[in-house]
Amino acid sequence: MNNISLPGIIVGKGYRPFIVAEMSGNHNHSLKRALAILEAAAGAGAHAVKLQTYTADTITLDISDGDFFIEDKDSPWKGRSLYDLYNEAYTPWEWHEPIFKRCRELGLMAFSTPFDETAVDFLETLDVPCYKIASFENTDLPLIRKVASTGKPMIISTGMASVAEIDETVRVAREAGCKDLILLKCTSSYPASPEDSNLLTIPHMQKLFNCPVGLSDHTIGIGAAIASVALGACMIEKHFTLSRADGGVDSAFSMEPEEMRQLVIETERAWQALGKISYGPGEQESKSLKFRRSLYISKDMAAGEVLTQENLRIVRPGYGLEPKYYDVFLGKKINQAVKKGTLLSWDLI
Fold first, then answer.
1. What is the rounded distance in angstroms from the CA atom of residue 15 to the CA atom of residue 11?
2. Nearest to 45 by CA among 261, 233, 202
3. Going by C-beta distance under 8 Å and a sequence separation of 6 or more, which residues neighbour residue 7?
4. Cross-referenced PROSITE patterns, in alphabetical order (predicted)?
5. Fewest beta carbons within 10 Å, which of 126, 159, 278, 328?
6. 285-348: in CATH 3.90.1210.10
């Protein structure tokens, strides 16, 4: 399984989690707000910001009833047409260049999710470093081929996809020229519940497709993301906004800046804590060995006296002989006078 090299960072086994702030439609159609989101993401320690590149006309049809109307009572977008929703959520294409420029100034990587071939052609003019395929497009094989043909690294969310569908997508991407691939475990509900996250899929997916695997996380909070790192997730993607109270199409399941900062800190701590298989005291632990228990004389004793439970104790600190020798010494005579607090040693008997 190869690690993936992206500008300024390596993604994969042995490297800290790659944290991506997904802007989506949280700019609320204000370029000023979009730029403020970039600054907040950089301030929170995120490594990258991701956009979505489409228009309402490139992603759906201008129809407001039937199949094109959202009636699901549990959907955050209930009562809206797809066209109306995407017309509100899309990021104007003319914003991409100033957004990418500002990201470079802030030390953030910037890339995007294209939703059709025209978006790929447009993003190529901006020399994006990689491409993300959304879960809802992971079976759009013509789009997969188009993106793969650029030769850029691909990040593919696997929400809703069966093993067979993921296998087909991965094969098509690789056959079309993709050499660097990251898959993301994803639950495509908004918000997603922890119970539906099934993070144990992550190491299974790594073995099955022989590539790095991360998490596109729509749960509330950071618990699922931290757990995913323990299971080998190399990348965490979370929707990001300045404030959920400001509203917007994705605000209800988006992180705020302080939450993103905690995500960056705690996922890195989780990654650091993985370490390696290790037994025995570590370098820092060695200083604590003295607080183990060991054998000490607990009363002043004269030469020839017998060691008993009253004058031999298992106590802290741990400079004396180990407690496992306690029964060996009971009943033995000491060969010299000793004071209370003398550590027991073999030359005393």
1. 6
2. 261
3. 109, 129
4. AFP_LIKE
5. 278
6. yes
